[in-house]
Specification:
single chain, 357 residues, alpha/beta, Rossmann fold, 2 domains, six-stranded parallel sheet, 12% strand
Amino acid sequence: MVFASTAAEQPSGNLAFIRAELDRRTPPIPYRVVMMRPSPSWRSWLATFAYNLRAGYHLGRARLFIVDDYYFPIYVIAPRKGTTIIQTWHASGAFKKIGWSVLDKAFGADESLVEKVAIHSNYDICLMASTTSAIHYAEAFHQPLERFVTDIGMPRTDVLFGPRVPAIAAAIRAKYRLPAGKRVVLYAPTFRGTTVRRATSPEDLDFRELHRVLGADHVILLKLHPFVRAAHPIPPELRSFVIDASDHPDIHELMLVSDVLVTDYSSAIFEFSLLGRPMAFFAPDIADYDEERGFYFDYRSGVPGPVFETTADLAAWLRAADFDLARVERFRADSFEVADGHATERFVDRIVLPALR
């Protein structure tokens, strides 16, 4: 059994939860971790070449091969008979376009690549949170809809349920010294750029304006996308108001201490909807992003919260605290068929163990 990714050095999200469940089983279920995170340097190209050789070796030996993102070796190596390849993806729903859906966009693969390589091919099972999202991913992966499993749930959502939630939340509050009695706003923008190697973070949000309006009783918990390597500039005088939590590996644990989510185009909105808490969308570059990437639904009417293009309007909404939670609940109901804190157990019982037998 192999966990593989070229987006991180250690399992995260769905892969981390599945790995932890394997370790908890008696006897523990053995596995390999074959992962790397490329960088823009020329040395990274050499490391990627060596990594792909190693990945091909393990792909040839694996009974079960699990990924959570685009994974090139799968698409160019014919799977050995007896190997099951599972795509768990790193988002719980279909929001931004990916794969075959963006061939006419600046982001992702282009026509010249897909003429040579059948991207997103060779998946035996694709994990998804709902049939609504699976329909879009079937288009994005060029996979038949019957390969999508939607009645297990997403392992990464398990952290949002169960008796461990208070302890996790307390640890996060202590780690980042979150002041008691203040509303915590999780600001989690997605990355910008047409390649993950050179991902950047937007800098349109005016933290000084937010502090002027909200500083007395709010704090901002900043979580940059994992692809972004450079720190977000925070003025020194605002560092007690804007707390950078980008070093924390699991955004879902940060959600547990957050009263409101502010994002732009992040798929974190799906998991956050499970908490039933308000969301807002700060998207001054919506026209450019739609042209570069595109969405699977109408952005302004489909997201579970109001869309703002100025910091002043966002700050006024947060200050008024007039939140439409019914909109969040409708989004959650449409996005998840199963979410109860036991998705990882079901995944291991229904997919991992039968494949290994």
